[in-house]
Structure formats: structure tokens, C-alpha cells
Amino acid sequence: MKRISVVCLILVLLCTGCGLFPKEESMRKAPVSKTALETQYFTVATVERGDVSNGYTAVCTYGTQQTENLSFNLPYESLIGVYVKTGDPVYEGQLLAEISLGTLEDDIEACEKTCKQIDSDLEYYSQMLSFEKERQKLAKDWGREYNTATIDELTLKVNDLSGQKTVADLKLTETNNRMKGRRLYASFNGVATYVKELRPWEPVGMDVFVTISSTDNGFLTSADDVSMFREGDSYQVETDNEIIPCTLKSIKENTQIRGRYIMVFVPTDPDLEIEPGTTGNVNIVMEEEKNVLYIPSSALRKIGDQYAVYVVDKDGMRDIRYVEIGLSVTDMTPSEKNRTVIRSGLSEGEKVILR
Which strands, in side-by-side order, build the sheet including 95-99? Predict the structure, then answer.
């Protein structure tokens, strides 16, 4: 009988099923560092608050403001004369050296004479044409006879002279350019820091013949786009050790690279001692948001038309969070690279997972 009672008790328990056992909970999210794989590939960053700026950075180096290397473009010609020595001061427009000119001076003089004569004739016949048009207009108004052939003849003459002027101007420009290849001029005030030495009648060659450098020092930089800079304006050069107030002294096109420009920033304090070769940045702020939340841009994911990030919650779990973003910075100083402003969806101090 006891055996039957025990069997009955077991059957009752089986029928009541899982009522004696706790309910199974839903599966929890895995911690960020749950596996070795996740530990190896995931790193986190903190949601911070601060100022985010977007703009342009010009990297510059302190030294001689400007240097120019001058060469002849006719390497097999011989020198007529060198008019400067190493260490001599030079001035903008000064003739430094020249090679054989041949008949170029006579050719230039003849071209200039032709251009002058054509200009004079063109002015004369243009005035005659204008006068004749006015005369015939008056004759028509008064009902008098007039000959339109005169206007046609003068018009043809003016058009012919205009064509001659175009050809003559082109020839003069070409002849002057040939002269430029035979003469070297200083393009700014400075010092001749190098002058090539040649033996009598030795060809000038294609390498640098004269180098000139400016005498003042400043922060130099080269850029393609200088539209946001203005000569005479004040800027700040940020070095590793200090911020140096400067004035943009000059913007000149690079003589060696077409389409690039050289800018020179001169310290406003002339007595400031700066080690040659010191590098710095000139930052131009074009957009700025102050006292905002931001994260590294690499933490963002694009999901459809929305942006999202993975965050680490208080339990150490990974969770997705959709966010609204603002200004994104990619081209300022290294400390500000890859920042994106977060307008909503995150709180200061939260941890986001980087890619």
C-alpha cells in the first residue's frame, strides 16, 4: 500500500508540471567584453562636452620668408654677364644675369614700333568712322543725299587694323617671352644666396643659376586655396609651446608650382626669438558649436536614414542607441579630428563603442 501511495504522489507532481520550478527568464544581452573576440576588437570612448570647431588649418614653418631659384631656359647659350655676387643685396626688378640676346633687342624695338603705328592708325580711322556715321545721320535727318559706301570702307579699314593689332601684340608678347628666357630678374627684395660660377664661354646649363632669399624671417606655408586669408590681417600661429600673434605679410603665387600660393606670417613682436624650423598651425574657424556633447565620428553607424551608436549600459551590456547629430569635424587640429556633435540620444559620460 505504501508503494502505491508513493507512485500516486509522483504522478501528482508530474501532472502539476513546472509549477514547482521558477519561470525561465528572457535571454540577457551579452557584456561587451564577454568573449575574447569582443575584447580584442572593441574599444570605447566617452561622450564628452565641449566646443567643436570646423575650419581650415595651414601648417607653417618658421624661416626665411621667401626663396626663389632662377634658371635660364636656353641651356646651351653663353653668358653675356652676371651682375650680382653671392651675398649681394638685390632689389625687385633688378637684372641679375643674361645670356646672348642675338637680334632680340632689335626685334622687340621693331615690334613695339609696329604696335605703336597700328594703334595710331586704328585710333584715327575709328574717329573717322564715328564722325562719318554722325554726319550721315544728320544728312538723313535733314533729307540730304549721302553715300553709305564711305561708312563701309571705313568699317573695313577699322576691322583690318584691329586684326593687325591682334597679330602685332601677339608677336610682341612672344618676343618679350623669348627675352625673359635670356635674362634673370629679381622678383622681390632680398639677398643673392647662390650664384653659379662659370668659365668663359661655358654653357649656362639647365640647373639653378641664381638663388635669392628675403632678409626677414616669418612663418611660411603653401596652399591651394587662400580665399579665406587677407594680406595685412592678424592671425595666430599655434606652436607646441606658445601662441604667436602674427600679421599676414604677403600672398604670392608659387613660381615653381602653378596654382599654389605661398603665404608669409610675420610675428607682430620683432624682438621675439623663434628657433628656425619651428612649426605651427594657423587655424581659420568657419563653423563652431560651443558647450555641446560630442563623440568620435568613428563611433557612428548609418542605418537607413538614421544614425546610431552602440553604447555600454550600466550592466556592461552592449545596446544600440539612435542619435541626432550636428556639426562634424574632420580637418582641424589633430585634437579635434573626427568629432561629431550629438544633439540628442546620448548623455554626457556614457560609453560608446568605436568601430
Answer: 79-82, 95-99, 183-185
